[in-house]
């Protein structure tokens, strides 16, 4: 095991120290871990570890405060943008972001999300869209695709019965208060780099008072989708990205 | 043209055996161990270490931040 290349002077990549050594409770291959990792990297690169306050959701990422070593507020379900509003207004020199899943952001928290964006609060909303309620057992979410199976639509989402998937990010892009709205993914190394850049830009916008930035990350929930992690990434690319295409929706 | 050579270290106890690093590696360096860590997961390791180019794709994709990547010019 003595590979001469493995030497601190040759190091080109390691996880940020802002990401704690605690093992994350997420399932193997879960996109949450990847996004946590890059959020931690951006906070370290911006040298904002002592001045960042995250707003944690209800859902799988409820324990985010155990993994990213910054201050966190634990928000009632869907209320993260409202809490982030207060935190940012009281601490304008702090970097304030919410981290929310599709159930949190686009179902119970739709009102808070839309109004925080419309007011142009100087916060970043990180939106993890995996098309399902992961934590509670893979139920249908607002963003579940037409025909996609979940535990509460076992034959696939039926438009007659369940309505259409809520494509909320383009709605947020229409609001005056948002300055940067983008949709990214973390299923390839290149996409991870792009998502990291997007989060950096969003965080910087919030610190110079440009308004609300929204970074949607189209994600996989391999356990909920009942696939291996690698297969889930392929399925996501072939299905989710058709309904939720990647790219910037607004950048002003 | 300068050639590069890489190597990685996997935090075996942190690895959950998800295999996304294997699918992300452009040089087919990685494979899953036959044995398991103390949590019962097989872990990623360099099956073909000579093929590693130190591109860090595996490190960028790993959801659990298990991988350290090293690179040298040769
Ligand atoms: S650094 Fe690149 S070539 Fe080396 S194992 Fe990782 S992905 Fe493969
Ligand atoms: S991506 Fe990370 S957790 Fe998954 S198998 Fe590779 S090293 Fe292990």
Can you give keywords for this protein?
heterodimer; A: 252 residues; alpha/beta; Rossmann fold; 9 helices; 10 strands; 37% helix; globular; B: 74 residues; alpha+beta; Alpha-Beta Plaits; 2 helices; 14% helix; 27% strand; binds iron/sulfur cluster
Task: Write the topology of this structure.
The complex is a heterodimer of chains A (252) and B (74).
Chain A: E1 11-13, H1 31-45, E2 52-56, E3 71-74, H2 80-90, E4 95-101, H3 102-108, H4 110-119, E5 124-129, E6 132-133, E7 139-140, H5 159-162, H6 168-174, E8 178-185, H7 189-207, E9 212-218, H8 222-225, H9 229-243, E10 247-251
Parallel strand pairs in A: 2-3, 2-4, 4-5, 5-9, 8-9
Antiparallel strand pairs in A: 6-7, 8-10
Helix pairs in contact in A: 1-7, 2-4, 3-4
Chain B: E1 4-10, H1 20-24, E2 30-32, E3 44-46, H2 57-61, E4 67-73
Antiparallel strand pairs in B: 1-4, 2-3
The complex binds iron/sulfur cluster (2 copies).
């Amino acid at each position: 095991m003595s590979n001469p290349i493995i030497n601190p002077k040759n190091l080109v990549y390691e996880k940020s120290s802002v990401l704690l050594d605690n093992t994350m409770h997420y399932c193997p291959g879960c996109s949450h871990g990847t996004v946590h990792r890059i959020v931690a990297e951006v906070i370290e690169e911006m040298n904002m570890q002592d001045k960042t306050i995250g707003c944690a959701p209800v859902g799988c990422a409820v324990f985010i405060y155990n993994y990213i070593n910054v201050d966190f507020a634990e928000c009632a379900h869907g209320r993260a943008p409202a809490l982030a509003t207060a935190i940012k207004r009281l601490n304008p020199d702090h970097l304030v972001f919410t981290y929310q899943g599709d159930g949190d952001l686009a179902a119970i928290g739709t009102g808070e999300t839309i109004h925080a964006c419309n007011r142009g609060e100087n916060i970043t909303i990180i939106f993890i869209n995996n098309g399902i309620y992961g934590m509670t057992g893979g139920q249908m979410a607002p963003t579940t695709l037409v025909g996609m199976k979940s535990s509460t639509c076992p034959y696939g989402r039926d438009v007659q019965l369940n309505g259409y998937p809520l494509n909320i990010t383009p709605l947020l892009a229409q609001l005056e208060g948002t300055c940067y709205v983008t949709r990214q993914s973390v299923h390839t190394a290149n996409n991870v780099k792009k998502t990291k850049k997007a989060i950096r830009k969003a965080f910087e916008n919030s610190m110079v008072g440009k308004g609300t930035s929204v970074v949607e990350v189209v994600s996989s929930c391999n356990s909920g989708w009942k696939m291996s992690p690698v297969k889930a990434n392929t399925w996501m690319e072939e299905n989710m990205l058709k309904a939720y295409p990647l790219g910037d929706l607004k950048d002003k | 043209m300068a050639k590069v050579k890489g190597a990685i270290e996997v935090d075996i106890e942190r690895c959950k055996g998800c295999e996304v690093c294997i699918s992300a590696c452009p040089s087919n360096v990685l494979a899953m161990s036959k044995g398991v860590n103390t949590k019962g997961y097989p872990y990623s390791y360099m099956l073909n270490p000579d093929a590693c180019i130190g591109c860090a794709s595996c490190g960028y994709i790993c959801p659990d931040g298990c991988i350290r990547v090293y690179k040298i010019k040769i």
